[in-house]
Amino acid sequence: MSVRAEIGMLDNVDGSSQFVSQDTKIICSVTGPIEAKARQELPTQLALEIIVRPAKGVATTREKLLEDKLRAVLTPLIARYCYPRQLCQITCQILESGEDEPEFSLRELSCCINAAFLGLVDAGIAMNSMCASIPIAIMKDSNEIIANPTAEQLKTSVSVHSLALEFVDGGNVIKNVLLLDSNGDFNEDQLFNVLELGEQKCQELVQDLRKIIQDGISPCLVV
Amino acid sequence: MAKDIEISASESKFILEALRQHYRLDGRSFDQFRDVKITFGKEFGDVSVEMGNTKVHCRISCQIAQPYEDRPFEGLFVISTEISPMAGSQFENGNITGEDEVLCSRIIEKSVRRSGALDVEGLCIVAGSKCWAVRADVHFLDCDGGFIDASCIAVITGLMHFKKPDITVHGEQIIVHPINEREPVPLGILHIPICVTFSFFNPQDTEENIKGETNSEISIIDATLKEELLRDGVLTVTLNKNREVVQVSKAGGLPMDALMLMRCCHEAYAIIEKITDQILQLLKEDSEKRNKYAAMLTSENARET
Asked: Which residues form the Exoribonuclease phosphorolytic domain (chain B) (predicted)?
């Protein structure tokens, strides 16, 4: 397994997870459903408060953009109409970014998505489907497509892509593409190749995530 | 409008009655500090501190900046202690005006920055125009009391663990050598301040203590979250191994006499001595682990010392 994850390490929140992939390490906490502030409250559905905090320095527009993308991925996953007028706080703290922070944010984004998904499951929030996300890079010269690139590989890449897919039926069926965020020089064929590789890697990852959840809850199950 | 935690009347009664009978919920004695678990990350200046269920992460970083005009020979040092809802839903994101948040950041600031634990003059590169700006970001992950003590340990351990890239100065021009090119240099740490927090409980009603005749307040070290919510008074002392009192903070609460303060400082000294030794030992082990080829690669001759 190329990733390591742990769920339920924090005590003061409803759900928590730690997700480690190569040099990127994210800890995520989920609290909810709780009472919403008047300005956050949505009359028919669950409001989401998503916070991404950087490892170094204060949160800037870069983190706001990450929050925005994370929101776009998580919103369709959660069964939000189950919790009208309630709030769910999702806080992602980046412990190690594992990439050159001013230039890239795709490793952090993918890990935040995976960590938030695990956190939501741990918090017991009703979900419609599962998701998995991986970062992908296309290398300079060789045009090789690499899933889950290292910080060094990112530096010599021509384009980078973040892919998040939605899964149903025990992680066997892909329902939708939740996010495909690309940066750099690439053509249509390359993008299709990225999607093809990403699909395969996300499918492997979603099985890993299922395993992690299973290992996390099986000691609590009464058989 | 983050909701404060409310503790039920029966639970608070139970905790206080247990304290009167010299018991604590987690089975510790009154003067027992929780075991401190310190772990280092991959990079320099990446420290996690765990004390019971309290988890704090500290990350030190640095960059080149311009020094303040009135202090041209000094580098910059900032500590950021922002609490996120991760530590508990009672904390609001971006709200640094809460009483606990302000008190925590001020005590850390006083203990570490204003006590001169970091040699800021050593951060100067070119007087008046360039210096290192060192930043300590404290991330509170899980709250079970003792945030001040844990974050103080995290910040000072982080500073001791951190290494900044080596530089070469040619007049106004500076070359920064990446850490894989040249051995990075550690920061100058002048002393190791450690905070110890005492919590006081009044076994009788408050009036009894004001009179001060027979006050028999209960004092415990390193309170958990529940004990923190119920306490009547709090005292944070910061000491270092040179037997210096770095700061004493007692913002309101139960009145206490001077002898009590002396006794607290003595008790705290035994604790900080133990923690300081632990930090130094862990740092040594970590540097040996990172530097396992040093003995093999060195061209130095064995010398008699």
From this structure: 32-165, 191-269
